[in-house]
Design the sequence.
């Protein structure tokens, strides 16, 4: 398996609901698995990105939303063996039990700091036990488990001050290299990407039949009440943002995530499926385009951080998807670079105010921007390198896009979280 193939393979994971509530529930369920007896207290500390993304996010198999209820459900009914799908088996009775814990004030959520680096520390206390589970850097990466004051598991962490900063694998490649890879890789090696379309379409279909969803039904109407019409953009909007809505409202089907996010995974590939189906293109070109989309998304995300104040779903995954469109239309590497310039100059400043219904509208904007950016670029209409955050080469532009998020929007992240906390205080009055 080629290095870039393995990079995609290792990163593609199914995630039930929005990734952050899933990660909170996973951490809490893991801590609960080491404790016995009646719950006295559940406490979860998390970084700002985690806190923000899960703040009002839908939870699978529940009508509730947010950080606190995710933690409660994780303790009551979470299965840590299922990772980000730890809430797959939640029942109505489980929701009632979790609700009582919340009502009794036994569940607390704290902000650990403003950071794009993933951090979760879940503490579960019973009469006989206290267990603390610490997660860092990725949503399920447990680095320490402490039971009754004794460390029972610990993963060695690199000393950031002393270590020589290692260049991420994806940054060792140019856009030209990535395109060469997707053109030449053995198609059998990337056939696993088919699973992403299968998983995301199941999620989409769940949204289409749900009474809880709203946007998907309007998008369906706008597409002539067809899943696949002869309008590729309308079809792309429906497939992409119907699946996103189903995800953020907490319907009981996973999304195929990339870079730790289900919405990233949806935006990166679902509009490409529309392009393939409407234009009757081969499955092979779809898989190669999806691989390119994933890699461009990863390239930007390695600069921005996994959780930040900008909408990585629209900006990073949207830019990857736009490059995938150019690839499917037999465009050149130069045209992809121009497409990246168009995306960088249009939606880079889009904020992330958590995983919620608003993600659907952001997905609508990103899909529209991607299709227009690609079409403009392939007709030699693009924002020149001299302007704004565009670099002299595509790699520099993608780097600058990422830097806008982190460190560029750390202040924005702080303001968003403060707005959330003000909302909590106002609602308590």
Sequence:
């Amino acid at each position: 398996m080629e290095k870039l193939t393995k990079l995609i393979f290792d990163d593609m994971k199914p995630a039930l609901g929005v990734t952050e509530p899933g990660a909170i529930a996973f951490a809490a369920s893991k801590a609960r698995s080491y404790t016995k007896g009646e719950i006295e207290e559940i406490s979860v500390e998390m970084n700002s990105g985690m806190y923000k993304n899960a703040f009002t996010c839908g939870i699978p198999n529940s009508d509730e939303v947010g950080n606190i209820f995710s933690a409660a459900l994780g303790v009551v009914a979470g299965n840590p063996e299922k990772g980000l799908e730890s809430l797959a088996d939640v029942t109505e009775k489980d929701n009632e039990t979790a609700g009582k814990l919340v009502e009794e004030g036994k569940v607390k959520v704290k902000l650990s700091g403003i950071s794009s680096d993933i951090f979760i520390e879940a503490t579960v206390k019973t009469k006989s036990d206290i267990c603390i589970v610490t997660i860092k850097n990725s949503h399920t990466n447990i680095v320490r488990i402490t039971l009754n004051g004794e460390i029972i598991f610990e993963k060695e962490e690199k000393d950031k001050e002393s270590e020589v900063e290692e260049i991420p694998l994806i940054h060792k490649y140019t856009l030209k290299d990535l395109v060469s890879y997707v053109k030449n890789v053995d198609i059998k090696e990337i056939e696993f990407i088919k699973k992403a379309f299968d998983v995301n379409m199941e999620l989409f279909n769940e949204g289409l039949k749900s009474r809880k969803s709203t946007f998907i039904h309007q998008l369906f109407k706008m597409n002539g009440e067809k899943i696949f019409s002869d309008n590729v953009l309308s079809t792309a909007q429906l497939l992409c943002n119907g699946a996103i809505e189903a995800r953020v409202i907490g319907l009981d089907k996973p999304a195929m995530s990339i870079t730790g996010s289900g919405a990233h995974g949806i935006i990166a590939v679902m509009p490409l499926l529309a392009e393939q189906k409407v234009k009757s293109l081969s499955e092979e070109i779809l898989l190669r385009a999806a691989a390119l989309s994933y890699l461009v998304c990863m390239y930007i995300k390695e600069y921005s951080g996994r959780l930040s104040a900008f909408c990585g779903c629209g900006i990073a995954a949207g830019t990857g998807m736009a490059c995938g469109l150019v690839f499917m239309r037999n465009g050149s590497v130069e045209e992809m670079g121009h497409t990246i310039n168009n995306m960088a100059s249009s939606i880079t400043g889009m904020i992330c105010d958590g995983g919620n219904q608003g993600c659907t509208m952001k997905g609508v904007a990103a899909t529209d921007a991607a299709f227009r950016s690609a079409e403009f670029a392939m007709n030699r209409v693009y924002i020149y390198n001299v302007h704004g955050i565009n670099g002299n080469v595509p790699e520099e532009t993608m780097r600058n896009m990422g830097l806008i998020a982190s460190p560029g929007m750390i202040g924005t992240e702080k303001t968003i979280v403060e707005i959330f906390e003000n909302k909590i205080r106002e609602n308590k009055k």
